[in-house]
């Protein structure tokens, strides 16, 4: 199965309108659930190198292998982000999956994040950026104001942002495009939906219906079938080659939409 040509045409046509208006759209790429340097992750990294697209890898602290750590320390153009702590579902029966639901004590939730931060900071050094990616893109609201005390400058979830700030001095750096069908096996439909979502998000920003923000492409290398590998390659290439857009790294993505009177955050992890 393939993505309908009309969906690709609509995406390209929207980018053409950005070019005609003298505007440039920016995209950033986040891949989740990194724990080891698996063949799937190696395949993803090969795509990143092929298209020179900066990649933010969400690493699970309690599962990160030495092979993965060595890879991230090797000087590659990959930024590591903290992906929770154990990636364990603590939600109650009937609740949506979350490692950090309100049903857990705030103390326990923050302790897990601190353990994960210390683990990765000690092992990854400057390869780790102070951005928290909560598993399943869910985190209880009462935690957000506390994250700056743990050294984070941003939290990355999944939705178009209406405001740059998640809490004082804590930015949203979200993804909005997910080509995986998490509730079935129709990845072609999910990928088409993500492409149409990209077109709609770009259109909304061009018409000032949404504030300017980086378009976040979310992948999960361990969950890709051959169709998805092909779609990911096609999408990354399409963005890399169109003159009205380009891929940016995590630090640059944090600058997009930041209020002009706010200084750039200090990107340290300890």
- The number of helices is 8
Low-confidence stretches: none
- What name does CATH use for the topology? TIM Barrel
Number of domains: 1
Averaged pLDDT: 94
Distance between the termini: 47 Å
Output the helix-strand order.
Answer: HEHEHEHEHEEEHEHEH
Number of strands: 9
The helical percent reads 25-40%
Gyration radius, rounded:
18 Å
How much of the sequence is in beta strands?
Answer: 15-25%
The class by helix and strand makeup works out as alpha/beta
Query: Quick one: overall form?
Result: globular
Q: Could you describe the largest sheet, including whether it forms a barrel?
A: 9 strands, mixed
CATH architecture: Alpha-Beta Barrel
Q: Under the CATH scheme, which class?
A: Alpha Beta
Could you give me the name of the CATH homologous superfamily? Answer: Glycoside hydrolase/deacetylase
């Amino acid at each position: 199965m393939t993505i309908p040509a009309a969906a690709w045409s609509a995406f390209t046509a929207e980018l053409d309108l950005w070019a005609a208006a003298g505007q440039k759209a920016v995209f950033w790429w986040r891949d989740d659930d990194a724990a080891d340097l698996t063949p799937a992750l190696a395949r993803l990294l090969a795509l990143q190198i092929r298209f020179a697209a900066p990649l933010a890898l969400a690493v699970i602290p309690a599962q990160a292998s030495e092979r993965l750590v060595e890879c991230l320390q090797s000087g590659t153009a990959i930024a590591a982000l903290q992906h929770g702590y154990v990636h364990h579902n603590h939600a109650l029966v009937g609740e949506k999956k979350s490692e950090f639901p309100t049903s857990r004590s705030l103390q326990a939730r923050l302790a897990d994040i601190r353990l994960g931060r210390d683990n990765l900071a000690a092992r990854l050094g400057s390869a780790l950026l102070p951005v928290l990616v909560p598993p399943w893109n869910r985190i209880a609201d009462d935690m957000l104001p506390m994250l700056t005390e743990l050294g984070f400058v941003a939290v990355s979830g999944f939705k178009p942002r209406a405001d740059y700030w998640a809490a004082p001095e804590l930015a949203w750096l979200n993804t909005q495009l997910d080509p995986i069908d998490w509730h079935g096996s129709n990845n072609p439909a999910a990928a088409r939906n993500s492409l149409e979502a990209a077109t709609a998000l770009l259109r909304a920003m061009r018409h000032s219906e949404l504030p300017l923000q980086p378009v976040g492409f979310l992948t999960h290398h361990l969950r890709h079938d051959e169709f998805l590998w092909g779609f990911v390659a096609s999408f990354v290439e399409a963005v890399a080659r169109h003159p009205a857009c380009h891929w940016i790294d995590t630090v640059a993505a944090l600058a997009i939409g930041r209020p002009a009177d706010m200084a750039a955050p200090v990107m340290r992890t300890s």
